[in-house]
Amino acid sequence: MSCxxxxxxxxxYLEGVLSSQDRARLExxxxxxxxxxxxxxxxxxxxxxxxxxNEDSISPGAWETLQQAFRNWKRAQ
Length: 77
Ligand SMILES: [Zn+2]
Hints:
77 residues, mainly alpha
């Protein structure tokens, strides 16, 4: 799995709806990519903070903003 692919499926992973096959590939990538470990941790914290403010699931627009922020961050590495 590439970093780009991880970004696209990380929301499904954190929501627990990713297939077991993709989850295994994601975790394999995490094991060798510190950048994605950091990203996953940040996403987890964002989800927790959003969850406190809003009972509903996170809007697609919010995910888009987060994913865009991550792409910019990776580009700056
Ligand atoms: Zn990665």
